Amino acid sequence: MSLSFDPDRLDLPRGHFIGGQYLPANGVMPMHRPSDAREYAACPVAPAEMVDQAVSVAKSTLAASGWATCPPRDRTRVLHRWADLIEAEAVTLARLEAFCSTRPVGQLIDGDIAVSAEQIRFFAEFADKQGSDLVPTGAASLGMIMSEPYGVVGAITPWNVPLSMAAWKLGPALAAGNAVVLKPSELTPYSTLFLAELSVRAGLPAGLINIVLGDGPTTGAAITGHPDIAKISFTGSTGAGSAIMQNIALTGIKPMTLELGGKSPQLVFADADLDLSANAIATSILSNAGQACVAGSRLIVEESVAEQVIAAIIARMKAVKAGPTWDETSSYSPIISQRQRARIDHLVQSSIAQGAECLTGGQAMDHAGHFYAPTLLSGVSQSSPAVQEEIFGPVLTVQTFREEDEAIALSDHPTYGLAAGLFTRDLSRALRLTQRLQAGTIWVNRYSRSRDHILPTGGYKQSGIGKDLGRDAYLANRKTKSVLINL
């Protein structure tokens, strides 16, 4: 069966999803498809009153359903049924995801959708395997560290990988016994709405997941500042994360998990497998047209092999096939909006004006949609905008080094520390440099996540607080209390 579809004939979920049903709402913000730049609808903006309704429904559902206190294996079973439904409805999810996002439909069923189902199953298995602990105390007492859910968790997800990011948030929060109020990006809400609909069909209590549509300043601020939301989980830009922290501080103290921006280096040493290195680096900056917080956007390569690595990357860049996300033969993504494409070009041209040399790309592509040509900039300094700024586009800078210490110095960024790549056949060097690189995730002889969901992800510096994925994400959705009993 072909996955390609006519975007003008796709049936879209409409309105907020609260209490297990869609609540129609008037659209306010114009919505455009990045693949053809067409305006097709308007997104509603949930005011504080609508967020309050969603939180109230989440609280009452959590209390009435007994979700937090039921036998943990019951939570595991229903979450597994939800994952089964995600796989069964993969075609519908893929089309809803591709319709208005930057994700080509041909990459979704075996990619984002399969991974989302896996992540929910992964967290489901924590429900009856992580609990309270007895701890050593004096002989005349009994010490316990008790674990329990927070209650209502607020989540805000970005537009670049909407479905996977929703699974990141919902899986651990629900497995841990919480309810969730989630705001997807106003640019890409549809797959998340359908994901919530599938949860009710799978048997999750209606109202345990509530999806409110809207922007950051109105809807997002109402979520992060709501007194009955006990914990916040956010993935997005460092600037937005800073605004969330400020809003929380102004409205009350609560824990948060923030996965934020990145400007990730990729170090290539002369002894590396250069074909493998060039392929991994090209893939990392071409995937989703570089619109990923972990995009490896800074190539730092040993001088003696730089020419060979650069040539291989340029060949990959020139071979991309741009096309609408609803065509299953398309493999290269559009930029999410005209505004973002203009920002990318501004940073590229500013870098060129400051001395960078554009080896390929450096301009918008001749296409109806918001496509930008894969771009490689050499001759950049540490102060170049292309090195300093998170461009969030298909732009790779290249710098060369001769000594290991020089490579480390070039890799360090004053703001970001989300991820880093390291390519070398020298095991001692690999182990040594993983200790020196300032990043929350380091990939050696690869540059991508695997499907080992046990590995947490999160950043150093201003790239975030806390971790998504792994055991850490589950525990971040539980709070603990210490109990000491005299016997």
Question: How would you portray this structure in words?
Answer:
This protein is of the alpha/beta class. It has 15 helices and 22 strands. The protein has helices spanning 48-65, 72-88, 90-100, 109-124, 162-175, 190-202, 216-224, 238-251, 274-286, 306-318, 338-353, 385-388, 404-411, 427-436, 470-475, and strands at residues 16-18, 21-23, 29-32, 39-43, 133-135, 141-149, 152-156, 179-183, 209-211, 231-235, 256-259, 265-268, 298-302, 357-360, 375-378, 395-401, 416-417, 419-423, 441-444, 460-461, 464-465, 478-486. Strand 15 (375-378), helix 12 (385-388) and strand 16 (395-401) form a beta-alpha-beta unit. Helix 2 (72-88) packs antiparallel against helix 4, helix 4 (109-124) packs parallel to helix 5 (162-175) and helix 9 (274-286) packs across helix 10. The radius of gyration is 23 Å and the shape is globular. It starts with 15 loop residues before the first strand and ends with a strand. The relative contact order is 0.14.
Helix content estimate = 25-40%
Helix count, per DSSP?
A: 15
Residue stretches low in confidence (pLDDT < 50, at least 5 long) are none
The coarse silhouette is globular
Main β-sheet, spatial strand arrangement: 14-15-16-13-12-18-19
The number of strands is 22
Tell me which CATH architecture of the largest domain applies here. Answer: 3-Layer(aba) Sandwich
From the 3D structure, determine the CATH topology of the largest domain. Answer: Aldehyde Dehydrogenase, Chain A, domain 1
Tell me the distance between the termini.
67 Å
Oligomer: single chain
Largest sheet: 7 strands, mixed
Strand content: 15-25%
Mean pLDDT: 97
